[in-house]
Specification:
Beta-Lactamase, about 30% strand, five-stranded antiparallel beta sheet, 2 domains, about 290 residues, alpha+beta
Length: about 290
């Protein structure tokens, strides 16, 4: 069993060494770095031979100082050995580093500890994967959602389940609807709280997955405007369903608030009407002054 676990850890490192940012095998018992490979290891770190110096240098290259203590604890030999004794052989941590050219990157570190069968030394298999694109995409998405959307939900059509929910709506909290909850019962309960009684049936029917899938499969946009009561104020919203992955039956539902945009449009239309009326009156006055 011990040999199988060791070979599995070494096998994983061998598999990802040509794809991951950095991979290392470290002897925790002797405090030595046995080898370093990867697609873009930082030169200063690559030249190190002892593990304590490696931890210090990794932290030195981290721009987020508030994560220094967490990272030091994550990499500490005592932490790794205590985890191993408690049956935790693999741990992960995401953090930022400055690349050899000064570029900031997000990385995911995966630490796997195993005991070497030949001599009982404790070995750390460390793999660092570049996740910059995923992290930046998530940050940008969260910013867009925070600025433009009330909520964004990913729904499993086949299971009628909420897969993911990101909400800026104070009524629609993570306690209200959680991943794994049945969508339609949760949706109906939420609409009872926020949608006007006169609109409840039509809005709820629109929001059923059967209706959304029917429209999307027919090549139509599944989009609708509505008004809701929010913090004692009537707000104008727009909801839209679209496929994330049609083959897997994953649908997204987004709701945006365009109350202010609608107000600006109505104000502009009102000003235009006033200007048009003034122009008509001026033209009438001109006609009255110069009769034909």
């Amino acid at each position: 069993m011990l040999e199988e676990k060791y070979k599995a850890a070494q096998g994983f490192l061998d598999t990802v060494s040509g794809k991951y940012y950095v991979t290392r095998r470290i002897n925790l018992t002797t405090n030595t770095i046995e080898y370093t490979q990867g697609t873009a290891p930082i030169q200063e770190i690559q030249q190190l031979v002892d593990y304590d110096s490696l931890i210090a240098t990794i932290i030195k290259h981290m721009p987020q100082k508030d994560l220094h203590e967490q990272c030091a604890h994550y990499y500490a030999k005592q932490t790794l050995l205590d985890n191993y004794k408690n049956g935790i052989t693999t741990t992960t941590l995401d953090y930022q580093v400055r690349d050899f050219d000064g570029t900031v990157k997000w990385v995911k570190s995966t630490n796997t500890v195993s005991q070497r069968p030949s001599n009982g030394d404790m070995i750390l298999f460390n793999a660092i994967n570049d996740i910059t694109t995923e992290k930046l995409s998530a940050s940008i998405m969260n910013m867009l959602i925070g600025q433009q959307y009330d909520y964004l939900a990913c729904l499993d059509v086949q299971q009628d389940v909420v897969v993911m929910l990101i909400s800026n709506d104070p009524v629609l909290t993570s306690e209200e609807i959680k991943p794994g909850d049945k969508y339609e019962p949760a949706m109906r309960a939420y609409n009872k709280k926020t949608v006007a009684a006169a609109d409840y049936d039509s809005i709820t029917e629109f929001m059923t997955l059967a209706n959304a899938v029917k429209k999307l499969d027919n090549g139509e946009r599944c989009i609708r405007s509505l008004t809701v009561l929010e913090k004692g104020e009537i707000r104008t919203k727009q909801m839209e369903f679209f496929y994330i992955d049609k083959a897997s039956g994953l649908v997204a539902l987004v709701r945006t608030d365009y109350t202010e945009a609608q107000r600006r449009q109505l104000e502009q239309e009102a000003k235009l009407k006033v200007a048009l009326k003034a122009a008509q009156q001026a033209n009438k006055a001109k006609t009255d002054f110069f009769p034909t």
